[in-house]
Amino acid sequence: xxxxxIVNGPNMPPVSDKHLEERILKAAQRLWxxxxxxxxxxxxxxxxxxxxxxTLYKRFRNKEALRFALAYRVREELFAHLFSCASLEEIYxxxxxxxxxxxxxxxxxxxxxxxxxxxxxxxxxxVLVLMKMAERFGGQPEDYARAFQALFLxxxxxxxxxxxxxxxxxRKVLREESIxxxxxxxxxxxxxxxxxxxxRR
Length: 201
Fold this sequence. Notes:
Layout: H1 2-8, H2 18-35, H3 42-49, H4 53-59, H5 63-83, H6 88-101, H7 103-110, H8 113-116, H9 124-137, H10 145-162, H11 168-187, H12 189-196
Helix pairs in contact: 2-3, 3-4, 5-6, 5-7, 6-10, 6-11, 10-11
């Protein structure tokens, strides 16, 4: 399975006990929310999940593999929200809402972006946004690569700030300004499409 290769590497055999995996990841998520990275030890997760450390090691070779598996799970939760959105405007609003309401989970995503963006790894969120842009504005999805990049950078930067700001009013202002910027990107998408067109590169 691709998931097992991404998380544990090609030399780790897949483990079929999905109920155990679910218990482990739920336990890891609880510990991450309450204690952060320092609380995410294999021993603590095994105890929280009601299993043993050797059993956990059979599924996750080290803490990094467990942390990435947890980030992968959070990313899937985020995608479930984004893929239910009817419009591009709803997608970036939902992205910001998810980050603001789940700051610890978004922090976990943030520290895992490097692996998610590795060459060859699928990027479903990018595919979703590019397809919606092509459906709405015409042309091919890849015509909007630069527009997607602008939206992602605006949303990711804002989301990162939303997760560390304590003042609700400041978060509200930042969120609204970011949405205006994203709206403006869509309003001027022809400019981004022109720059992304293969004929102009």
